Write the structure tokens for this entry.
Amino acid sequence: MENNIRIAVQKSGRLSEESLKLIKECGIKFHNGAGKLKSTATNFPVEFLFLRDDDIPGYVADGVADLGIVGENELVEKNKDVTVLKKLGFSKCRLSLAIPKGEEYSGVGYFEGKNIATSYPKILGDYLKLKQVQAEIHEISGSVEIAPSIGLAEGICDIVSSGSTLMMNGLKEVEEIFQSEAVLICNNALPVEKQQIVEKLLFRMDAVQKGKKNKYVLLNAPNASIDKIISLIPGMRSPTILPLAEEGWSSVHSVISEDQFWENIEELRTAGAQGILVVPIEKMVL
Ligand code: ATP
Ligand code: MG
């Protein structure tokens, strides 16, 4: 179809599963058989390209794809001119500098005149410039953590999530230089018809994200406590109050963020709330 939008997603890796899950939660159906590089949705005007994440910013900048889902680390490193439409909240990680465990570290000046191995020469270069540290950047594409032990570099700059890979390689994290999560990116010159489809997709993504952040709460309370309880869980517009079969009691239904629920749980119970249920919300449109 002429007016399909194309979304580039990672073929296989740490972004793939969550990217496809988000698309499915938006109600978009498609088949992605193993090894397939392209797929068309059956119920939304969208086509998927399954690519290496390194290629996604470039494909979106060039217009080969209209949208893409990629980590901010890869996006900033590739330095392509695209628009970030939305942070997606998954594949969170950080880029850090690390040095051999036994070394004494006094501050970022440690790296002056040293050799640092990384797959992120741009992000690292920008950081060192900002800190006014002169160091040699040694670009390698993978297995960065072994560089110090084989004498290739004195330090590394790489993605860290738990830190266990660093530890296994006798390294310690000394500076966090960049924080990343998955983002939805868009070509800068989309034709209006495509923009309209993108709007529809964004509307669905917002509904999914809002749903995740909120919970549906149901509880029973004596009628005398209802005002207090409403003030604790005010809901989207105002809570629903239904009478229970038992005289003098009501059921209160509301929508609140999970954090707000935990903050108010003791007060709710003190106010007389009982039989409290907290239920996930699939989608939420305000
Ligand atoms: P490709 O083969 O597509 O080039 P890759 O090996 O470069 O994949 P992955 O390891 O799959 O990349 O990671 C993809 C992205 O996921 C990273 O660029 C980063 O944004 C994020 N990421 C990396 N490691 C983690 C982690 N441990 N936890 C969460 N997110 C991570
Ligand atoms: Mg990659």
Remarks:
- Residues 229 and 268 are 6 Å apart (CA to CA).
